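Class prep. Write one:
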Amino acid sequence: MAVGIKRLCGVALPATTLTNVYTATQEVALSTIVVCNRGTTATTFRLAHAPGGAADALGDYFAYDAPIEPKQMVPFTIGVCLAATDVLRAYAGNANLTVVAWGEEGAASGGGASTFLDLTDTPGDYAGDATRFVRVNAAETALEFVAQDPELAALSVLTSAADTLPYYTGSGTAALAAFTAAGRTLVAGADAAAQRTALGLGTMAQQDANAVAITGGYGTFTGNVAGLERSGDSQIGFYSLLNAAGGASRFAFFGLGTAVSQFNGSVGIKQPPSAHTLELGFGKVAGAYGLSLKQMDGDTGGGHPVMFVSSGGSIIGSISTSATATAYNTSSDVRLKHSVATLVGALERVRALRPVQFKWNADDSPGQGFLAHELQRTIPEAVSGEPDAVNDDGSVKPQQVDHSKLVPWIIGALQEMAARLDALEGGIS
């Protein structure tokens, strides 16, 4: 439809550059172009029509190197129809020229009527066209009947009601759903943050499910059991009967109450656990330790960083520290002993021992000590394990020696030798 002549563009031209000043988006009747020299020196200009934005040819120019004096306006009455995508271009000899174009957009759309009275070839009657719609045809020359849209028809038969929203249940079918005030508040949220607020959700709701972080706060569980596990196999997690004093098949990272945190199976730190209850992996790194027991900040004096307790609750050993040293202790209180007697035959026992020197298979380093199976025959309490024992996989299950168990026999042997020396010295004197 024609909408009247209007200003299409106004562009200040750069110097010596062919510039697009207007691109048609529909058919346009270009009526007038005015070129204005705002400067104080004379120059020249060019005006060109580029159909479809194509490169300029000499035949496309309205003006080519036309002169224009200082402070002068040069009008052009064009009367040219531009098609959609056609381009109006201009060129200036200096940077003081402005191009303004006027025209009528949509003026060439062809024979369209502007009122119903202008339409011709209208259907004579509407017999047989019940439920059909009337519309202006594409050429804007007549009215025509069209079939009712099935999607709109499905909505048209619904009976509106408060707090409801129409929705499609299938192709050409629709129904009403409840749309409460709470739902409207959620939909009206300006962004995701506002919608989370409407739902009462905290920041956890927007976290990646594979990397959930809880910063401060806590979770509250109903009942006495809570847990996290890997989907399908229950291989990782925590489980706690928070108020139970005993029981099996439970482990916990932390739980208030009387339950002891328990891991049902081996635990590995820095490496997967093997058959051991607790296994610490450490690397050969200067200044790094596999296990470090540090006294609490602010504490002074000694303490017992490690205590060994029997299943009956009795202390059977410890590792104790002072401010400067460490002691490895085993129980020796007289109240824990009976049938006490002086050790005899110590010298004979010591004489039966065979100290040896050797090299270790692992790294060929030298060593001194005893062979466990030989020592076991003389002082069995100093050796643990059995000769030639192997693990289930066939690997060596080595015997081990506690050299501290030799000390009483060595002291006893020294005392027996001292007594013999005393007797010899007495006989000589």
User: Anything to note?
Assistant: The chain has a mean pLDDT of 81. The two ends are 147 Å apart (CA to CA). Helices lie at 150-156, 181-188, 192-199, 346-352, 372-378, 407-428.
